[in-house]
Amino acid sequence: MEIRSAFHKKLREIQDDILIMGSMVSKATLLAIEALQKRDLALANQIIADDKKINRKRFDIEEKCIQLIATQQPMASDLRTIVSVLNIITELERIGDYAEGNAKITLMIGNEPPLKPLVDIPRMAEKTADMLNRSLTAFINHDADAAIKISAEDDFIDNLYDQVFRELLTFMAEDPKTITRATRLIWVTHNLERSADRVTNICERVVFMVTGKMEESNTSSSY
Amino acid sequence: MSEQTKISIRDFNFFYAKKEVIRALNLDVRENEILSVFGPANSGTTTLLRALNRMTDLTPGVYMEGEILLDGKNIRSPDINISELRRKVSMVFEVPTPLPMSIFDNVAYGPRLSGVKNRVLLEHTVEESLQMAVLWDEVKDRLHNSAMRLSGGQQQRLCLARILALHPEVILLDRPCSGLDPVSTSKIEESLRHLKEKFTIVIVPHNVQQAGRVSDRAAFLLMGDLIEVGLTAEVFANPKDKRTSDYITGRFG
Predict the structure, then answer these.
(1) How confident is the model over B122-145, as a mean pLDDT?
(2) Which chain B residues are Cβ-neighbours of A7 within 8 angstroms?
């Protein structure tokens, strides 16, 4: 018989909440770029409005964690799980803010003519959302090995970031009239790059939760 | 936990001789909840528990004022049948009190006293009670061994089973885990969570942490005064009164 089943049930509920929050954030990350591609200002506004729901979810989870700590005296792996949850929701909330930021940039760009067809930026968003989803699966499965591998994939995002950055610099160097539009796209790219970095932070938390080791993941990111 | 009030304590004062132990207490116990009543020594927690089934009547020199209503009926009124009250509102004590007889006979003791002779019915009651107290699996093959040979945690669960066999409505627990190891404590706490679906439980925990773990609502008594009562998660994460906060954070007591 599991002797603290009521406590573990509550802990599982919090883990489910993390998955729900994760899917809200991952959806916002993808939709923000879709809004940018399609110049869909209504969608951009929707993402901005939905960010409030993400923030609310973060506080709800935080409150549940505080109550569990206050009433249940979690120990060992249970304690590490709750501490990890508290860290992960902060990372998720911030990734949500980056998506909101990208939606706001979409509104700024408005109906300006496109600088170039977007190819690498959507790839960055898809890869980031994919890494995010898998990092949360690793969290649920207590899979530190998977988390370490996902962290390493951040190099792919960094390479894309370099590539887009250079490309946009070229535009600006050739035609100063493109500077405003290109700068805005650099902001978008930067937000995505930061989002992926925060996914690596989530992975670090998964490793801590499983092994108890606090280590920075080995990414070669220079940003 | 329902919103229905099972026990309502109204303007209750309690004295041992001239010493006032509980002062002007107003507190409701809701049906199917686990209410923990906690506080430092000499705060009136055990006295309150014992007053709820009038065990305090057994102590010479006590004096009470106010009302304790069980399902709306004052348990202090003269026409109350005390044996029936104590069956409805049963208590498990701090020190396990197995009777010097077999496990089976311990649990069957109450039903037999109340006239149940049917063997099949007794066996059913004993099994059901031991199941509810989460002891059945550990003792089912040795029901006729002496209860005195059980471990402390098992003895305490046996005492719980013994009162469950009498189909109580309210279970009072006075520091039921004070001498027990963490695993036995967890087993008792887990059994309480199942029991509250059928019963109303008032527990005086042996430490603050237990109040946090097991109860739906928590009431903090200090030197006979009710300082704060509320949802346990609220009382423990965000107490309203500084004295509650100081006590649960270990700044006094």
Answers:
(1) 95
(2) 213
CA of B118: how far to CAs of B3, B111, B112, B124, B139, in Å? 38, 10, 9, 10, 22
Give CA–CA dist A171/A168, Å, rounded.
5
Over residues B202-223, the mean pLDDT reads: 95
Run of H or E residues at B63: strand B62-70
Question: Has residue A219 got a pLDDT over 60?
Answer: no
Alpha-carbon gap, residue B183 to A1, rounded angstroms: 11
Q: Which pLDDT band, with edges at 50, 70 and 90, does B251 fall under? A: confident
Interface probe with A: pick from B1, B34, B190, B209, most Cβ of A within 10 Å: B190
Q: Which two tokens stand for residue B227?
A: 């300082």
Percentages helix, strand, coil for chain A, rounded to the nearest 5?
Answer: 85, 0, 15
Query: At residue B131, does pLDDT exceed 70?
Result: yes
Q: Does B233 touch chain A (CB under 8 A)?
A: yes
Q: Tell me which fold the domain B5-97+169-248 belongs to.
A: Rossmann fold (3.40.50)
> For B49, what's the count of Cα atoms within 13 Å in the CB-facing half-sphere?
26
- For B233, the closest of A7, A67, A73 (CB atoms) is A67
Take residue B134 and report the two structure tokens written for it: 């989460």
Instruction: Return the domain boundaries, chain B.
Output: 5-97+169-248
The C-alpha atoms of residue A5 and residue A8 are separated, in whole angstroms, by 5
Residue count of chain B: 253
User: Using CA atoms, how far apart are residues B221 and A52, in angstroms rounded to an integer?
Assistant: 41
User: Count of A–B CB contacts within 8 Å?
Assistant: 34
**Contact call for residues A128 and A196 (beta carbons, < 8 A):** yes
pLDDT at residue number A1: 55
Contact B190 A71 (CB under 8 A): no
Is the pLDDT at B227 greater than 80? The verdict is: yes
Residues of chain A contacting residue B134, judged by C-beta atoms under 8 Å apart: 1
Regarding beta strands B170-174 and B19-30, do their DSSP bridges make them parallel or antiparallel, or are they unpaired? unpaired
**CB proximity under 8 Å: A 32-91 to B:** 63, 66-67, 70-73
Q: Which of A171, A166, A167 is nearest to A181 (CA)?
A: A171
Is B190 within 8 Å of A5 when comparing Cβ atoms? yes
Quote the CA–CA distance of A99 and A154 in Å, as a whole number: 18
Which residue in A3, A4, A72 is closest to B212 by CB distance? Answer: A72
| Whole-prediction pTM | 0.83
Mean per-residue pLDDT over chain A, rounded? 94
- Nearest chain A residue to B215 by CA: give it: A71
Average pLDDT, chain B: 94
Q: pLDDT tens across A32-58, in order?
A: 999 999 999 999 999 999 999 999 999
Q: What are the chain B neighbours of A70 within 8 Å (beta carbons)?
A: 212, 233, 236-237
